[in-house]
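In the design runs reported in the main text, the only information available to the sequence generator was the tokenized backbone. The following block is the verbatim input for one such run; it is reproduced so that readers can re-run the procedure and compare outputs position by position.
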């Protein structure tokens, strides 16, 4: 399904080539993870979109991810059931597709792939596009199975700050890390001791493909982010 066999977990990804070959097959749900305006302009045929591409719960003022029942409703409204293969893509270098990947894993649905290169690669290859919305989703059942290992708590983070075998990784922009950009936060700055490496450093800005695994490993190692440590990313 993925050509990125140099990665430790190539099964987390899929390619535009694979999706083009399997587009429209039953049991596959393609999710456009960008904002509705972009979806309405054009998207992969049959793709659906989320009203909230952060999957945040309005009952918590959009501070936390949907609870189990809210996420179940979201998944089923997209036609995502327990047996559905989800392919997520965006035009934002994988930012929002990866968010959906994480949210689904958080609720125990691991049959999900991020399309490497996203919309930019699909479009640059001249593949089929559509401006028609997807039809009604199939009747499915999504069973949330909470996986707490996909999220770090504030208490765990405070413990990890002082451990030599743990890294607190700040993936935000340099301005956010240094406190010169607030992005609406009441307290600018960073978690004490956090390592800064913006997530964009791991993605090719031109193609939107993940950089080669060897390059990513080198960059991570240069910042002390290694497989032998617990990584708390935020």
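Verbatim output:
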């Amino acid at each position: 399904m993925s050509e990125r066999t140099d990665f430790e977990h190539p099964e987390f990804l899929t390619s535009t080539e694979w999706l083009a070959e399997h587009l429209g097959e039953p049991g596959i749900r393609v999710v456009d993870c960008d904002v509705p305006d972009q979806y309405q302009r054009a998207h992969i045929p049959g793709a659906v979109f989320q009203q909230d591409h952060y999957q945040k719960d309005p009952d918590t003022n959009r501070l936390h991810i949907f609870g189990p029942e809210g996420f179940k409703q979201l998944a089923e409204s997209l036609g995502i059931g327990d047996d559905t293969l989800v392919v997520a893509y965006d035009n934002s270098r994988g930012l929002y597709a990866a968010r959906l990947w994480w949210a689904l894993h958080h609720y125990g649905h691991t049959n999900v792939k991020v399309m490497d290169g996203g919309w930019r690669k699909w479009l640059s290859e001249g593949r089929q596009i559509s401006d028609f919305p997807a039809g009604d989703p199939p009747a499915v059942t999504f069973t949330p199975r909470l996986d707490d290992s996909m999220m770090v708590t504030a208490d765990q983070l405070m413990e990890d700050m002082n451990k030599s075998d743990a890294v607190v990784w700040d993936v935000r922009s340099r301005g956010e890390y240094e406190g010169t950009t607030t992005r609406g936060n009441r307290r600018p700055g960073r978690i004490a001791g956090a390592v800064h490496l913006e997530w964009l450093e791991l993605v090719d800005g031109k193609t939107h493909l993940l950089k080669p695994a060897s390059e990513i490993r080198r960059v991570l190692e240069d910042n002390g982010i290694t497989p032998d440590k617990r990584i708390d990313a935020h």
